[in-house]
Protein 1
Amino acid sequence: MRCLRFVAVCTALLVPGAAVARADVTSPQAPGSLAVSDGAGALAVHGAGVIFGVVGQGSLVLVSYRPGAVGAVPAVSGAAARIQNGLVVYTGADIRFLLPEGRYSIQTSGSGVDLSAVGRGSISVSSVSAAGLINPPPGGLVALDGASSVSLAAFASPGLFSPHAAST
């Protein structure tokens, strides 16, 4: 039931955003997109917009989050939060997260990472997490701004999504 609620919230938040993004396609400030499928290793994503996903096995670190709307609150399920070095850390299996409209900086570490973002930002890939833990070699696929997917192992990190990502 909690999973169904999580999917409903994600859908409710994305439908209006998709309509706005569709209306702005011709705008020079059109939002970009990021999609990671079956990712492995250490991923760091910094951006502005919406991001959601799943960490199959490993950790999610919320480095920072500033909501863009009153009442916007991050939703994380599948692991209990703990504070480590001033950061909010979730560790376990099947960690699901949604950060509604705002500015964010997250790190995932482990395997089975699927995430999607709409807005602007950057992604960096490594086999060593910020905490110095050795992770599996980078693996999985990444696609930026609707382009064809490429291997995370061969990805030129950092990658920008949205032509105006440098301003994040």
Note: The beta strands are 32-67, 75-77, 81-84, 87-126, 139-144, 150-151, 159-161.
Protein 2
Amino acid sequence: MLKKHIYFICAFFILTLAVIPVLTRAETLHNIDSQARNELWLNTGFYSYHFQRDQGLDDHNWGVGLEYRYSSVNSVTAGRFHNSDLQMSDYVAWFWQPYAWGPLRLGGLLGAIDGYPKATNGAWFPMLLPVASLEYQRVGINLTIIPSFQDRLHGSISIQFKFKLYE
């Protein structure tokens, strides 16, 4: 059981080591000035720690995607991954992260996703989620909280690793 959650434990540990020292320097939440960017990131799927631990959901949601950051506060993303219901999901989204707290970018995403048979019989449906991102040189993570919705969508804390291809 511990082996199944090793990625979540490692990611949480790395995030804690990276963020806590910076945030304890009396950093305050502030707006990020919007500036043009030209960055392309390769995104992995997700590791999802599900709130409903007794339902046999797949926490290892492997996949691939691209994220294009066209400004310091905006990016677009698209990808495909193996979801928690053992189906393939496609997603498209727009990230808006106008706030920072130390190295963390904070905001949300607006997009659409498919592949969840209990949600809409696998068809596309909209998503609006909070997102925090931590980036350092050529590596980063996106962290989001997905709420549970009845028995149709299983809530989780999800981590996505990313690697900068160019800027």
Note: The mean pLDDT is 86.
